[in-house]
Amino acid sequence: MEKLQIDNHKKGIDTITRTIRINGHTFDRITEIAEKNNISFNNVINQIIEYGLNNMEE
Questions:
Q1: Residue 43 domain boundaries
Q2: Other C-beta atoms lying within 10 Å of the C-beta of residue 6
Q3: Reported pTM
Q4: In whole angstroms, what is the distance from residue 37 CA to residue 17 CA?
Q5: Contact at 8 Å (CB) between 47 and 5?
Q6: How many structural domains is the chain composed of?
Q7: Distance CA 45, CA 34 (A)
Q8: Is residue 30 part of a domain?
Q9: Residue 8 lies in a domain
Q10: Rounded to 10 degrees, what is the CA torsion of 31, 44, 41, 18?
Q11: Is 38 left (phi over 0), alpha (psi -120 to 50) or beta?
């Protein structure tokens, strides 16, 4: 399986606001990725979710 590559391009897509809970360590890792790539936390979350959905075993 290919590793996730974070894309730092801004994407204009429709969004839905939803509250999720994640543990502190995961939050810190995602924040670090967002800062390193100069993109928003939400952008990283969406890319991680898309990658996971696209690479799930059916």
A1: 24-54
A2: 14
A3: 0.81
A4: 23
A5: no
A6: 1
A7: 9
A8: yes
A9: no
A10: -130
A11: left
Amino acid (1-letter code) at residue 55 = N
Is 38 inside a domain boundary? yes
Would the CA dihedral through 9, 20, 50, 23 be positive or negative? positive
| Sign of torsion over alpha carbons 35, 8, 49, 18 | positive
Q: Decide: residue 51, CB within 10 A, 0-12 exposed, 13-18 middle, 19+ buried.
A: middle
Is 2 contained in some domain? no
Residue written as token pair 């509250």:
19
* CB-based burial, 22-49: b 16+ in 10 Å, e otherwise: eeeeeeeebeebbeeeebeeebbeebee
Tens digit of each residue's pLDDT, the chain (58 residues): 788 888 887 666 688 899 999 999 999 999 999 999 999 999 999 999 999 999 998 8
